[in-house]
Amino acid sequence: MPRLNSAAELENLRKEILLKRDPDKPCIAICGGAGCLGLGNDKVIRAFEEEIRKQSLESRVDIRATGCHGFCEKGPNVVIYPEEISYTEVSPADVPEIVSQTVVGKKVIDRLLYTDPNTGEKAVHQNDIPFYKNQMRHLMSNNSRIDPESIDDYLAFGGYAALSRALFEMGSAQALEEIKKANLRGRGGGGFPAGLKWETARNAPGEEKYVIVNGHEGEPGAFMDRAIFTGNPHCVLEGLIIGAYAIGSHQGFIYTRHDSPRLRKNIYTALAKAEEYGLLGENILGSGFNFNVEVHFDVGIFVSGESSALMRSIEGKNPEPRPKYIRTSVSGIWNKPSNLNNVETWANVAQIINKGADWYAGIGTEKSKGTKLLSLSGNICHTGVVEVPFGTTLREIVYDIGGGIPNGKKLKAVHFGGPMGGSVPEEFLDTPLDFDEMKKLGAPIGAGGMLVLDEDTNMVELTRFYLNFLTNESCGKCVPCREGIRQMLKIVTNISEGRGRKGDIELLEEIAEVAGAASLCSLGKTASDPLKGTLRYFRDEYEANIH
Amino acid sequence: MDKDTVEKILDKYRGDPGALIHVLMEIQEENHWLPKEILNEVGLQLGVPLSRVMQIATFYKTFSLTPKGRHEIHVCSGTSCHLRGSTHLVDKVRDLIGIRPGETDSDARFSLENGNCLGCCTLGPEIVIDGNHHARVTPDKADDVLKHYE
């Protein structure tokens, strides 16, 4: 593949790719997300390959191992194109029938369709399934349509048009303006406006500047970044290149998990392909803009997802956070301005440039724009990766998309943000998903791990669980975090085992306040949030164990 | 781990102290633990004092300074798996193979670890063995999963 040297060459290539493709050619898209992997989708993929060979259909049918489709609960998921027939819970034994009946015979196999447990209705297409129907899938929808290892697939769906637009039609200042106007807020947890962060880095003194993708995703119960980064890596990469251009950076870093082989492979493939096509490296698309990307891995510690710790780790040092009197966007990696955003934030950039800030700002609530990816798990019927516009109520997510609580149990609470988040009780279920609204309730959205808890959940025990997690993950650099969490854990453990004493709750509140005020980084500052939240809404569960 | 493999990994990063974590990660993946002589060699070749090599090697949970079993078992102890009873699963695995999390058995067949969320939150309880994910592993299914790893 020769390098692309202009916007026109990119468009020509796109036309060529589309011309070569026959839209009527059958394609079997098998979900290769983390959930389906656990359900043995590799056997399903192998069975399809074998069956296609057996029936000598290699030239007439494509097989595509894709990223996560979203509906993990009913995996392995398979979609047959061009009709977009969706089968759930597919086993290798179903494969010969699918190939001969559906792929060749164009007939739908009833028993493999999703059946709505309430109405008994069968859903032929993904979008007929309530789980998908009630979402707005701007980021996730391409996951089932593209092979994450194929840059041509990404180009066929309009990939890198936004980069070309930013480089040749907008210029860096206008690209930045567009992101600011769209009010894209950081998806990693803080909800800080990405445009303002970019602007700080752009205006910071110094020639050398860095941009970083935070793909650490260490928060237990969060798996949506992996879904988008593994399933559509170019979408994240395109956002990163545009951001680098807007900020004036020539070096980017991807920081992600080491323990997901497919994620690693897809990132490396995407980088190599983008470079080969002239979309990365020197003189991108002939624009004169240079940008390179290095990949770094977390090797198993939660705190290295914290921005300043992550940057230390990229320098090859211990991931210990530093106080942020000076923002990392002014002084980060090797004390150079370093703009860090989460995977999902970067994934939003290309569509904003393509469709405009006004389109984007039309989705969501007044202050939280666009869609949000959520990892839906816990005591809920339909677990999986969910994408909804901001403003969707928690009730809609739990019942319309999530299908409610299994085993006829009642909902007790919804927990956001993992070990540094908070729970809201059932009575707040009509709250819209919104950065500020949720924060007011003491359950900030965090990265988007949404855990549903049924009536049997012991909230004190859940708090103990989170504190226990954090004692093992605190880096130990500052005393309020290292010792504070330990002491809180000790007291909460006593209470959860029925050995609480008078004054324990007050002492907990005091330690929480000090650890929150005096810790260096957000791990220590927010470690007590689940505790504070459960004390606010479920205090009686603590009090019942004080003797 | 033979010297050639270590050399091959080091060749890519020689003289680059910033690559320390990368190098240790590759050696850990290849060899499943980090022997003292190799750590010495890494420090020399990258130009990093041994004290800092040790700081990194002991800080991250993935790195091991002792040999591991042929099969590495991670039982997820993330929130979702915890809610679905992963503590019972850890107990069951412990009873089956006779070691606690953090230990390796005397035949060096298994090493057992608690994993902090391995990504299959939708389908817990989850066990990952040698990178293979097994979903919805209730304690009574643990034996079935383990017996495939000799």
Notes on the structure:
- The complex is a heterodimer of chains A (547) and B (150).
- By secondary structure, chain A is of the alpha/beta class.
- Chain A has helices at residues 7-20, 34-38, 41-54, 95-104, 130-133, 151-156, 161-170, 172-182, 194-203, 224-231, 233-247, 261-276, 307-314, 343-355, 357-361, 394-401, 435-440, 459-473, 479-496, 504-518, 522-526, 529-537, 539-543, and strands at 27-31, 62-66, 78-81, 85-87, 114-115, 122-123, 210-215, 251-257, 292-298, 338-342, 371-378, 384-389, 411-416, 422-425, 449-454.
- Chain B contains seven helices and four strands, in the order ααααβααβββα.
- Chain B has helices at residues 3-11, 20-31, 36-46, 50-59, 79-83, 86-97, 142-146; strands at residues 71-76, 110-115, 127-129, 132-134.
- The interface between A and B is large, with 53 and 38 residues.
In short:
With 547 residues, chain A is of the alpha/beta class.
The whole-number mean of residue pLDDT values of chain A reads 95
Q: Write the CATH fold name of the largest domain in chain A.
A: Rossmann fold
Alpha-beta classification of chain A: alpha/beta
Radius of gyration of chain A: 24 Å
Instruction: Give the biggest beta sheet of chain A.
Output: 5 strands, mixed
Q: What is the CATH class of the largest domain in chain A?
A: Alpha Beta
Strand order in space, largest sheet of chain A? 12-11-15-13-14
According to CATH, the homologous superfamily of the largest domain in chain A is NADH-ubiquinone oxidoreductase 51kDa subunit
Enumerate how many helices of chain B there are, as a single number: 7
CATH architecture of the largest domain in chain A: 3-Layer(aba) Sandwich
Quick check: average pLDDT of chain B?
92
Low-confidence stretches of chain B: none
| Strand residue percentage of chain A | 5-15%
The oligomeric state of the chains shown is heterodimer
What gross morphology of chain B would you assign?
Answer: elongated
Question: What structural class do you assign from the helix and strand content of chain B?
Answer: alpha+beta
Low-confidence segments of chain A: none
Share of helix of chain B, binned: 40-55%
